[in-house]
Amino acid sequence: MKEELWRTVKLFLLWCLLFSVSVIGIIVGKRILKNDEIMNWTILLGYMLIAIVFFGKSYVKLSFGCIKRRMIWPVIGMSVLVAASYLFFEISFYSLIDIDHLFPKESKELREVDQLISGIAEILSFCIFGPIAEEICFRGILLDGLLKMRCRPWIAILITALAFSLVHGYAVKLVGTLLFGIIVGWLYWRTGSIIPCLIIHIVNNSIACIIHLISQPTNLIVILIVCLLSLSYGLWWFWRKFNFADEFNQTINTNQ
Fold it and tell me: Among 12, 41, 63, 201, which has the highest number of CB atoms less than 10 A from its own CB?
């Protein structure tokens, strides 16, 4: 357990070191040079370095876990379904409870941020490399480390999902990112693979980047129900098809 703890700490520190490139880009580009273009490309560079180092060195394995070859395409399809269903469910739910009225200041800030996602660097960061960097950190390093240290799966999933939610910073997004973290964390534990998590996160952010907020209140209940049903079906499919937890426990017991 001590070896796994030390390994997790080292990987997390390495992730933070690489992520500091993005932080430096924000400080230098935004506050010193007053150049958003430099900031955006430096942020993207930091995300890309994380992906290249962690996948290139196999610090986080880009494997399919217990997913058999014949199941790869169905898994990809179901991951897309889960991502789209969750996103539209979240948008519909926030619209239904009038989240803008509950958090007017933060909602306005988020809309302003969304409007800034227009250039190539911003789109690549938000849609692809940002999600990859986050999944490497929260599922590939932290959740994987907690599971290997024999932390109870649901406790490990909740801890990493809460950390994932808090890192995003906005109270208006706290519940949504927490639920999202729980979903992808459960999928990582269930399949033993980071690939479904990556697909869901990338698809979720990509769709969010191109759609408009739902504005027809009369359709919200129907949309909520449809999205919840399709999300439930996608998660049930993963639950029925995969159970990496047994293989994971057997591997740990064998190594002891």
Answer: 201
Alpha-carbon torsion 100, 180, 55, 124, what sign?
negative
pLDDT per residue as tens digits for the range 42-79: 999 999 999 999 999 999 998 888 888 888 888 899 99
Taking the C-alpha atoms of residue 71 and residue 73, their distance in angstroms, rounded to an integer, is: 6
Residue 4 domain flag: no
Residue matched to tokens 């109870």:
152
Domain that holds residue 229: 62-251
Tell me the CA distances in angstroms from 243 to 181, 190, 211, one per residue in order: 19, 5, 34
For 136-179, write each residue's pLDDT tens digit.
999 999 999 999 998 999 999 999 999 999 998 777 778 889 99
Orientation angle between helical segments 174-191 and 244-255, nearest 10 degrees: 70
241: CB partners within 8 A, 6+ apart: 71, 74
pLDDT > 90 fraction of the chain, expressed in percent and rounded: 43
Q: How many domains in the chain?
A: 1
- 127's CB contacts (< 8 A; 6+ apart) are 202, 205, 206, 209
pTM value?
Answer: 0.83
Burial 136-148 (b: 16+ CB within 10 A, else e): bbbbbbbbbbbbb
Query: How far apart (Å, rounded) are the C-alpha atoms in residues 27 and 42?
Result: 10
